[in-house]
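# nightly structure sweep
# worker-07 picked up a monomer target from the shared queue
# config: single-sequence mode, recycle default, output format = structure tokens
# input follows
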Amino acid sequence: MEEKVGLFAAESAVKIAQALVDGVEYDLPADLKKMREYVKMSDSAKYRKYCDEAVAVIFLDSFGTNSLVQLGYGVNQMRFQATITCKTSNIAVDIACNKEITKQMLYDASIPVAKGDICIDEEDLKKT
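# output follows
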């Protein structure tokens, strides 16, 4: 029974992520209801307790049109927007925004990067 609940939870997680990517509504309450049904069939009271706690932590909200998403609440919450999460450091964002530093770091890590150059006018374009 525990394997069945675990597989269902994993499949639901993939479906939730896909719904977020596609920007469509997802029927989370239906999944939670089915998970609770699986848990009720379980023999283990301890296992039931853990599943109830896990189900209680799942919460999904989208704030307006800026694509900020929050999963969970309280100490278990995770917020993300595009490629940035609540755990992304400011320095990482700053480095990623600076093309020259990013290119140098990738080059130093032996990751091939196109050299690239800045063109201001047609003459610069002909030089590159």
